[in-house]
Amino acid sequence: MPTPSLVETKQDWFFCGVKNNFYNASGDYLKLELLLLKFKELFDGNNSDKKIEHMESNKTLNWLMSWYASHCNGDWEHENQIKISTIDNPGWRVKIDLVGTNLENLTLDRQTYETSETDWYTFIIKDQVVDATGDPTKLEILIESFRGIVDQQD
User: Fold this and answer.
1) H or E segment at 122?
2) What is the number of other CB atoms lying within 10 angstroms of the CB of residue 118?
3) Helical spans, DSSP H, in 29-113
4) What kind and span of H or E run contains 78?
């Protein structure tokens, strides 16, 4: 089992480790891609001897990290979050707090796009929170849907 690691300076830190077969990772606002790379290294480490040294950059994740970083001011990030999790349909859920952003007064009725039980996503903005869910292939679409709204408001 890999040893948990913590690398930290005041604004440059991350933690990742496995406990009870659960990967747990946290980091500063620019570490999402690195934490995914560390997970891939752990997973691939159990399946091959090949060490990953590079992960293709994802423009969508980079945009989300930049959006988040642009709102971090020493206070906002302590009260507001971006949560990316899985759901049991199966699929993804993305929740983004909008308090303190130029979108905090925005509401959007639920938008649902579904072609089958395995090809769907839904998106709503209510009570100052973006709540988007989708099938296992829709994580990028969920984030890009949010990006489209941000771009419309700027």
Assistant:
1) strand 119-126
2) 12
3) 32-45, 59-71, 76-79
4) helix 76-79
- The pLDDT-based confidence of 23 (bands split at 50, 70, 90) is confident
- Tokens 């500063």 belong to which residue? 28
Three-point CA angle 120, 124, 126, nearest 5°: 160
d(CA 68, CA 150): 12
CB atoms within 10 A of CB 128: 17
Work out the widest C-alpha separation in the chain, in whole angstroms. 51
Backbone phi, psi, residue 64, to 5°: -60, -40
State yes or no: pLDDT of 104 exceeds 90. yes
Cα separation, 70 vs 48, whole angstroms: 38
Average of per-residue pLDDT across 2-24 = 72
Q: Which two tokens mark 106?
A: 């925005």
Highest mean pLDDT among 5-14, 66-75, 99-108: 99-108
Which backbone phi and psi does 52 adopt, to 5 degrees? Answer: -85, 125
Taking only the tens place, the pLDDT of each residue in 29-81 is 788 888 888 887 877 765 545 544 555 668 998 899 999 999 999 899 989 99
